[in-house]
């Protein structure tokens, strides 16, 4: 009997010769014969893979298989025949991997799936298939994996049938419908998932240990998935897995870092990358709703986290948020200063404009800053298709609470994110801590890495997560930022913020950046940015009272001073005794500082005494240091170690001064303790920042028991004097070269070995320290500079006349000569306050500053010190009238609002000095060098949304009118510069605007073919005059304001009645566009000029043309009536000006310009004409002779506007070169260049009664400039 075999039978007499195959076959044996039997497992005999596939396709539709299928279907069993057999490529892979290349061993080229409703039908199906011999089929193999697990944990009963007729296998795989993953029949969600997963890993041959681990994990994960699908684990366990499920939309699964910057080909050729891509896509796209589906998703996600992401990075946005939040929490817990400050946090008030000394802090139009920021963050984009940058710029004074506000906002935004009310994650970035000028574009990435986020996951975070970036302290990095060599100025571009989906909040000190810097660095191009300007306002009385109440509660808990028993009322009463503190306590940080030291201030200063800000800081910093010394002293006393607290205090103070000055020089508010410095071979010698006491104990234990040298012990903790010694040594070397160290170890001397001096600092990172507040660093820097000036023991600075050479040498080495203080107003003010300090220590400060200025007369090497000295004296409001400061060298000094009447600056170097609103009557500037000197630009008028085309003063000089391509007219108060009205009504570009002579009305004209009249006292439109059939080019009131004349592009001129708005006359005669119209002084006639090359004079009453003047050969652009209406001046594109004598109709031709003339003006006395042209020049002509008097050259582009001053002695001009220039008419000398506009200057005007200039530009702004010293120059 042969069973399930392929066999042969032969006898020795060759009477029997059988070759067959059967599942079961019996043959009789005859006696007397010798039989030779051969048997082997039934196999296929295809000649090629293609032949095998072909046979399988035929067998699956054969009569034998069809009969079996019909038999199964009689029992209501579902038999699924695939649309086609397995594809060739898939088979080739399987043959190579599983059968060593022998395709005839493949048994499942053709497969049927038998699906049963229950176990009974499954048993029936198996029984029917086992009787397949009745259908001429051989049961070659019977494997039951329904009650025992297969390799992949699929649950099925496999029967392999041999079809003799076609010499091929067909597989019959039976299972329950609830376990199948066959698409179209499965009840499992996403049934293809396990098959796809299997296809990726079945032929995987790992190339290294890492791949081996991933392959093993993949196999295990597939097994777990199949356990869920096939019910190998119970329902309770599946439910537990499903309960962990979070969808991609809920947690935001992050793309694996290894896939970034990889091409499709690179991914396809690397199985690890292919697997990462596959799993990521499945997790993102598979959104199950049923229990098993959720369990499968969770298993796949765990595999993704553990083996694709490898648990070293967050796998989802939710994981990232949790990690970032934990890091932020740890950072906050380590920053005790901020935690305590948050306990006393009081909501800040703000406004859309900065608070001035005249403003009421409790003003009704101020608003809650926190709520305004939250509201702005919540605003949706008007058009989601538009790319829009959302930026908030929060400005406030030093100590106004900017950083604390940011930290409080960060807490609120985290709460909002956690509760699901917002989708944006807050990221607070201390710019002084994170900014690196060598790697600006990666500032966000660096900030995240400092919060324990690995670099490799940054791309995935950038791709998936929405942020609110809170960039705190821009003013503290601006000096470095501004000096950095970069083509871009706008911080958004420099920091590469366009790569992030984020709204941006930036904080900055008031006045740390000038208006131009704020515009170009922080606001940027208006067409791409929505920037909200918010100005923090000082505390109101109510806010101060609320703060004091919170401080009292916190003081009882934390003992900020020795007076924790003081009540709110006691603080308020004590403050009332010192009126000059009232302004200081409007700033949150100063209020806290003053409350902390108020009891000690009360002891030092009698009631009513004027206490300076420097004195407050002195008291606070002394108390701060005393607190740390007491802690150390108490511990050492317990250990029976003697110390001298006074010496320790001096060492601490010197350390703070040295470090503060180093920070000033390095332009960095954060000192970094180098990792190399911290690393020790003996771990006991490393002091834990968070536990000074343990560090002290460790050191004490190292001291020899027989008697340690206490002095030697303390030297270790204070760097052996290295920090201070360095600054002393600097005085014997080239100061600038030595101190401006670029080494990464610049801070090493401040964290040398076991220094505990650093514990007076605020720890803001693992190895980063800064002072309690930037103003504390400024105070210590000021102290170092002051005591350096006062430290001369030989009175060199007090006997300048007797020791000039020695004196100059000494000044060169002073710290005040190291660097200009201009960007450090806090340092300047601290030094300035000491000038008026009654403490005898500071008596010599003022005279020595004057002597430093005098020293610059003979030495260029002390000009930095001299500039700083005079800036400090000015900040202290020291009277500097009638000083003989000839030859002094003070480039870049700040002398704004200085008292300098009668001061002699002859031959002085005043390059880049600012004299904004300085008192300079009778000051002498003879032969002074004044390159880049600045006499002040007032805050510009901003609001227009497009190019500002024109500006005019009202006749009564109280208002400024501007009109723009944004189709609006704006009216501003000339003295306060506040916007009064926005006049909207024109639907096309405005071409002209004029005030009525009584300043009560405006008339405007436009390309929209209308003329509109407006009431200046309101924003109400009073009349719309319609009738022109083309754009209106010009409009003017008659002298008595009863009529209006207008002209248009089609050549007609119309006269209108102001009261009724009706047209009175239509003047026809010009054949082309009329460019200008003007009433004569009595209103009886009108003069017009046109592109038809003619000038015409009209009678107003009759509308009759009285005269026509011809001579120009090109378009006539404008006309002026002069000399009691006896002459008309015209200018044309033919490069000429003509002066027409109306008595003879003859003209004088003024020639000289080489390009078209842009405009002309007549001097106030009527004797001169100025003309300005596309040839970049301004020319002055004698009106009577026509001779050219001056050619004013200096502009580098087309001159588009120019005006005489009211006395005719000066000219102001504006150009496409973006500058405004002031000229002396008599000499033709250029007196001043004003730069600030970022595009073409279109209009300039002198203020009627003030030494100021008004300008407007394509850059959308109107600017006001000082011109105080022009008389002195001329």
Automatic annotation (TrEMBL):
Pfam families, sorted: NACHT (PF05729), Pentapeptide (PF00805), WD40 (PF00400)
Gene3D superfamilies attached to this UniProt entry: E3 ubiquitin-protein ligase SopA, P-loop containing nucleotide triphosphate hydrolases, YVTN repeat-like/Quinoprotein amine dehydrogenase
Keywords: Repeat, Ubl conjugation pathway, WD repeat
Highest taxon in the source lineage: Eukaryota
One of the protein's GO biological processes: protein polyubiquitination
Segments forming domain NACHT: 391-552
WD repeats: 941-982, 983-1024, 1025-1066, 1067-1108, 1109-1150, 1150-1191, 1192-1233, 1234-1265
InterPro entries assigned to the protein according to its UniProt record, in alphabetical order: 5peptide_repeat, NACHT_NTPase, P-loop_NTPase, WD40/YVTN_repeat-like_dom_sf, WD40_PAC1, WD40_repeat_CS, WD40_repeat_dom_sf, WD40_rpt
Repeat in keyword set: yes
Protein name in the entry: NACHT domain-containing protein
Organism: Reticulomyxa filosa
């Amino acid at each position: 009997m042969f069973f399930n075999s392929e066999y042969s039978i032969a006898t020795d007499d060759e009477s029997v010769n059988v070759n067959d195959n059967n599942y079961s076959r019996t043959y009789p044996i005859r006696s007397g014969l010798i039989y030779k039997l051969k048997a082997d497992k039934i196999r296929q005999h295809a000649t090629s893979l293609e032949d095998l596939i072909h046979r399988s396709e035929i067998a699956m539709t054969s009569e034998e298989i069809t009969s079996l299928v019909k038999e199964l279907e009689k029992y209501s069993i579902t038999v699924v025949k695939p649309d086609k057999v397995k594809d060739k490529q898939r088979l080739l892979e399987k043959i190579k991997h599983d059968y060593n290349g022998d395709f005839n061993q493949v048994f499942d080229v053709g497969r049927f799936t038998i699906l049963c409703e229950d176990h009974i039908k499954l048993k029936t199906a198996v029984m029917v298939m086992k009787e397949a011999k009745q259908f001429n089929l051989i049961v070659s193999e019977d494997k039951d994996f329904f009650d025992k697990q297969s390799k992949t944990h699929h649950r099925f009963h496999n029967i392999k049938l041999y079809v003799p007729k076609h010499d091929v296998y067909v597989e019959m795989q039976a299972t329950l419908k609830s376990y199948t993953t066959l698409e179209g029949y499965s009840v499992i969600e996403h049934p293809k998932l396990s098959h796809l997963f299997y296809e990726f890993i079945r032929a995987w041959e790992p190339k290294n240990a890492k791949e081996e681990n991933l392959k093993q994990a993949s196999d295990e994960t597939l097994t777990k998935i199949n356990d869920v699908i096939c019910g190998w684990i119970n329902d309770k366990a599946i439910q537990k897995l499903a309960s962990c499920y979070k969808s991609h939309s809920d947690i935001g699964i992050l793309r694996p870092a290894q896939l970034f910057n990889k091409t499709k080909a690179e991914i396809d050729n690397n199985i690890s990358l292919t697997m990462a891509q596959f799993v990521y896509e499945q997790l993102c796209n598979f959104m199950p709703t049923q229990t098993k589906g959720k369990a499968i998703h969770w298993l796949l996600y765990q595999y993704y986290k553990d083996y694709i992401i490898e648990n070293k990075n967050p796998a989802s946005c939710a994981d990232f948020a949790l990690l970032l939040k934990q890091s932020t929490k740890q950072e906050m817990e380590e920053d005790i200063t901020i935690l305590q400050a948050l306990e006393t946090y009081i909501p800040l008030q703000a406004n859309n404009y900065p608070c001035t000394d005249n403003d009421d802090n409790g003003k009704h139009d101020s608003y809650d800053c926190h709520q305004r920021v939250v509201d702005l963050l919540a605003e949706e984009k008007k058009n989601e298709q538009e790319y829009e940058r959302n930026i908030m710029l929060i400005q406030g004074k030093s100590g106004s609470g900017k950083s604390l506000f940011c930290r409080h906002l960060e807490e609120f935004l985290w709460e909002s994110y956690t509760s699901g009310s917002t989708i944006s994650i807050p990221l607070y970035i201390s710019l002084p801590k994170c900014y690196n000028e060598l790697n600006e574009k990666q500032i966000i990435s660096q900030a995240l890495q400092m919060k324990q986020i690995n670099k490799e996951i940054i791309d995935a975070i950038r791709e998936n997560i929405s942020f609110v970036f809170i960039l705190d302290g821009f003013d503290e990095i601006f000096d470095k930022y501004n000096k950095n060599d970069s083509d871009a100025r706008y911080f958004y571009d420099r920091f590469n913020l366009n790569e992030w989906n984020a709204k941006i909040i930036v904080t900055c000190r008031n006045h740390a950046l000038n208006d131009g810097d704020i515009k170009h660095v922080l606001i940027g191009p208006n067409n791409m940015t929505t920037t909200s300007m918010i100005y923090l306002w000082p505390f109101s009385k109510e806010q101060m009272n609320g703060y004091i109440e919170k401080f009292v509660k916190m003081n009882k808990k934390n003992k900020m001073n020795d007076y924790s028993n003081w009540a709110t009322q006691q603080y308020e009463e004590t403050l009332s005794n010192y009126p000059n503190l009232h302004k200081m306590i409007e700033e949150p940080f100063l209020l806290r500082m003053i409350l902390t030291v108020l009891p000690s201030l009360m002891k030092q200063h009698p009631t009513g005494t004027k206490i300076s800000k420097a004195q407050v800081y002195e008291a606070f910093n002394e108390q701060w240091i005393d607190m740390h010394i007491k802690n150390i002293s108490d511990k050492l006393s317990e250990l029976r170690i003697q110390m001298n607290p006074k010496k320790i205090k001096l060492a601490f103070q010197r350390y703070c001064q040295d470090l503060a000055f180093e920070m000033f020089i390095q332009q960095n508010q954060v000192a970094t303790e180098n990792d190399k410095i911290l690393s020790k071979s003996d771990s006991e010698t490393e002091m834990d920042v968070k536990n000074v006491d343990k560090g002290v104990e460790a050191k004490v234990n190292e001291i020899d028991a027989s008697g340690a040298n206490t002095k030697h012990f303390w030297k270790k903790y204070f760097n052996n004097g290295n920090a201070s010694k360095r600054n002393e040594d600097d005085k014997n070397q080239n100061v600038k070269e030595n101190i401006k160290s670029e080494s990464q170890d610049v801070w090493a001397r401040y964290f040398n070995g076991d220094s505990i001096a650093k514990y007076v600092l605020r720890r803001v990172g693992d190895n980063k320290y800064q002072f309690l507040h930037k103003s504390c660093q400024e105070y210590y820097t000021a102290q170092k500079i002051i005591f350096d000036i006062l430290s001369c023991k030989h009175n060199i600075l007090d006997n300048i006349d007797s020791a000039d050479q020695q004196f100059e040498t000494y000044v060169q080495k002073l710290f005040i000569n190291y660097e200009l203080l201009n960007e450090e107003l806090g340092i300047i003010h601290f030094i300035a306050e000491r000038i008026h300090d009654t403490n005898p220590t500071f008596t010599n400060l003022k005279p020595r500053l004057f002597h430093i200025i005098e020293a610059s007369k003979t030495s260029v090497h002390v000009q930095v010190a001299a500039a700083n000295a005079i800036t400090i004296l000015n900040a202290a409001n020291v009277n500097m009238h009638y000083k003989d400061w000839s030859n002094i060298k003070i480039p870049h000094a700040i002398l704004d609002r200085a008292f300098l009447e009668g001061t002699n600056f002859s031959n002085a170097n005043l390059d880049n000095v600012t004299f904004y609103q300085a008192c300079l009557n009778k000051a002498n500037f003879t032969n002074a060098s004044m390159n880049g000197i600045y006499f002040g630009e007032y805050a510009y008028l901003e609001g227009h949304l497009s190019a500002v085309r024109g500006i005019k003063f009202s006749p009564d000089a109280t208002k400024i009118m501007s009109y723009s391509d944004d189709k609006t007219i704006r009216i501003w108060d000339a003295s306060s510069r506040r916007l009064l009205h926005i006049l909207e009504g024109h639907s096309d570009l405005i071409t002209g605007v004029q005030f009525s002579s009584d300043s009560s009305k405006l008339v405007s004209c436009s390309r929209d073919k209308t003329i509109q009249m407006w009431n200046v006292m309101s924003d109400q439109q009073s009349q719309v005059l319609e009738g022109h059939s083309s754009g209106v080019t010009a409009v003017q009131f008659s002298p008595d304001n009863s009529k209006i004349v207008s002209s248009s592009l089609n050549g007609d001129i119309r006269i209108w009645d102001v009261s009724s708005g009706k047209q009175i006359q239509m003047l026809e005669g010009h054949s082309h566009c009329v460019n200008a119209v003007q009433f004569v002084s009595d209103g009886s006639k009108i003069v017009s000029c046109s592109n038809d090359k003619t000038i015409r004079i009209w009678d107003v009453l009759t509308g009759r043309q009285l005269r026509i003047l011809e001579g120009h050969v090109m378009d006539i652009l404008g006309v002026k009536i002069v000399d009691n209406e006896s002459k008309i001046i015209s200018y044309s594109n033919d490069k000429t000006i003509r002066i027409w004598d109306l008595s003879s109709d003859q003209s004088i031709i003024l020639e000289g310009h080489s390009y078209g003339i842009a405009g002309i003006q007549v001097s106030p006395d009527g004797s001169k004409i100025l003309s300005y042209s596309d040839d970049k020049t301004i020319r002055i002509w004698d009106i009577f002779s026509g001779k050219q008097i001056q050619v004013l050259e200096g502009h580098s582009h087309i001159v588009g506007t120019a005006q005489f001053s009211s006395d005719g002695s000066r000219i102001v001009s504006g150009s496409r070169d973006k500058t405004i220039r002031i000229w002396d008419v008599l000499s033709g000398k250029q007196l001043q260049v004003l730069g600030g506009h970022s595009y073409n200057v279109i209009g300039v005007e002198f203020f009627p009664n003030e030494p100021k200039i008004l300008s407007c530009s394509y850059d959308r702004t109107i600017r006001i400039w000082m011109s105080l010293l022009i008389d002195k120059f001329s």
